[in-house]
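Field log, afternoon session.

UNIT: design team B
ACTIVITY: writing a sequence onto a fixed backbone
BACKBONE:
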C-alpha cells in the first residue's frame, strides 16, 4: 500500500475510535448516575485490574504495553468524569470563585509589607520594586514574615523562593504549604554579591565571613578558593553586614549587596564574587487571603502523587492535554517519609482560561495532596 492509502485507512480507524470513545464516555455518565443511586465508590480497583489484565493478554506481546497505557488513560479519564459529576464542588473551585469575584485591575503601589532581613537586604530591594510607596517592615527570618501576614499585621510579605544558580528555597515552599499563604506577584532581581569588611582591611586579613546560606551557596567557588577562613550563616546578608560593622574584630567580613557599603560604613574588598554573572533571585509577594490581579498568567501548586508506576506521568499528561506549558517541575522529599516526594509546579495559565478550573479540581481530587498557591504575574526588577 502507498503512504496515502495507509493514512486514509488510519483516518477511518481514528473515526471509529473517536465514535467508540464518545460512546464509552456516555456510558461513563450513566455509570456515575448508577453509582450515585446505589451509593457505591467511584474507584473499583478490582474491576480495573481485571480489565487491564484482559487487555494485556488480548493485545499480544508486541502491543501489550501500549494497549495497557491506552486503557489505563481511558479509565483515568472515566474516574475524573465521574468525580466531576458526583462531586462538582472542590476546595480549589471555591477559592477560584472567590478570587474571580474580587479580582482587582491594578496591583497596588503601597501597603504595609513584611520582608525578611534588615535594611539593605535583597528582599527589601524586591519589596521596594513591587511597592514603590510601601511601608516596609523588616522581619527576623522567613517564618516571621508569614506570621506577620497571617496575623494581619502586614497586608503583604516578600520572601525569596528561587535562585538561578542555587535553586529553590525549600523553607519558603514549606511555609507556603503549612501557613496556607497565597502568591499575588513575583519578581526576578539580578543579585550582585560582594565581599565587605571594615575600611582598610584586605582579603588576606580576613579569617571569618558571615552571610545568608543562599548567598554562601551562590559564592561557593570564591569561598572554596580561600584558606583558613570560617564561613558562618546569618539570618540575611544585611544582618551579616551589620554584624561586621558592629564587630571590634578587623578580620571579619560579609557577603552582601553593595548597598550595605554606605548603610553600614563598610568597604568593598572584592566585587562580583558569585559563581555566575547571571545570578538572579526570584521573590514572591504573599497575602493571607487568595487574590488575583488582572493579567495574571502564572499558577503555582504543590502536589504529591501516589507512589506507583505512572502516577506522575498521569498528572503531567492531564496538564499537557490542556495545552498548558509547565515552566517548573521540581521534586522535594517529604520529611519523615520513606522516599515519598512532593512536587513544586508552575504553570503558564490563568484561572480565566477555559478548562483550567476543571484541571485544578481534577488534580486536587486525584493527587494525594494538593495546595493551590495562587495565580499571579511575574515581573522583572
Amino acid at each position: 500500500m502507498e503512504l496515502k492509502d495507509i493514512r486514509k485507512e488510519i483516518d477511518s480507524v481514528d473515526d471509529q475510535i473517536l465514535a467508540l470513545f464518545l460512546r464509552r464516555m456516555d456510558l461513563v455518565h450513566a455509570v456515575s448516575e448508577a453509582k450515585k443511586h446505589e451509593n457505591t465508590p467511584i474507584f473499583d480497583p478490582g474491576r480495573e485490574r481485571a480489565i487491564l489484565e484482559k487487555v494485556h493478554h488480548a493485545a499480544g506481546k508486541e502491543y501489550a504495553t501500549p494497549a495497557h497505557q491506552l486503557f489505563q488513560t481511558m479509565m483515568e479519564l472515566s474516574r475524573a468524569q465521574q468525580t466531576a459529576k458526583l462531586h462538582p464542588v472542590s476546595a480549589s473551585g471555591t477559592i477560584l470563585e472567590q478570587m474571580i469575584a474580587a479580582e482587582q485591575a491594578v496591583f497596588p503601589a503601597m501597603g504595609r509589607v513584611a520582608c525578611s532581613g534588615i535594611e539593605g537586604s535583597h528582599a527589601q530591594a524586591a519589596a521596594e520594586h513591587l511597592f514603590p510607596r510601601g511601608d516596609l517592615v523588616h522581619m527576623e527570618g522567613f517564618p516571621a514574615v508569614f506570621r506577620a501576614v497571617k496575623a494581619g499585621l502586614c497586608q503583604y510579605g516578600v520572601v525569596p523562593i528561587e535562585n538561578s544558580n542555587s535553586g529553590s528555597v525549600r523553607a519558603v515552599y514549606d511555609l507556603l504549604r503549612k501557613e496556607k499563604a497565597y502568591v499575588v506577584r513575583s519578581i526576578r532581581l539580578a543579585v550582585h554579591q560582594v565581599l565587605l569588611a571594615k575600611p582598610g582591611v584586605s582579603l588576606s586579613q580576613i579569617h571569618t565571613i558571615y552571610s545568608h546560606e543562599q548567598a554562601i551557596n551562590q559564592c561557593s567557588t570564591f569561598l572554596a578558593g580561600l584558606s583558613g577562613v570560617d564561613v558562618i550563616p546569618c539570618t540575611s546578608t544585611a544582618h551579616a553586614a551589620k554584624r561586621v560593622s558592629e564587630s571590634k574584630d578587623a578580620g571579619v567580613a560579609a557577603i552582601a549587596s553593595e548597598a550595605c557599603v554606605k548603610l553600614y560604613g563598610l568597604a568593598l574588598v572584592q566585587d562580583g564574587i558569585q559563581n555566575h554573572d547571571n545570578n538572579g533571585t526570584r521573590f514572591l509577594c504573599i497575602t493571607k487571603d487568595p487574590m488575583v490581579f488582572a493579567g495574571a498568567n502564572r499558577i503555582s501548586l504543590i502536589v504529591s502523587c501516589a507512589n506507583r508506576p505512572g502516577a506522575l506521568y498521569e498528572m503531567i499528561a492531564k496538564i499537557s492535554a490542556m495545552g498548558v506549558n509547565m515552566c517548573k517541575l521540581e521534586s522535594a522529599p517529604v520529611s519523615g517519609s520513606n522516599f515519598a516526594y512532593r512536587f513544586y509546579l508552575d504553570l503558564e495559565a490563568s484561572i480565566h482560561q477555559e478548562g483550567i478550573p476543571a484541571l485544578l479540581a481534577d488534580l486536587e481530587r486525584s493527587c494525594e495532596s494538593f495546595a493551590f498557591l495562587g495565580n499571579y504575574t511575574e515581573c522583572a526588577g
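LOG NOTE: The chain has three domains: 3-86, 91-190+280-380, 194-270.
NEXT ACTIVITY: expression trials, pending approval
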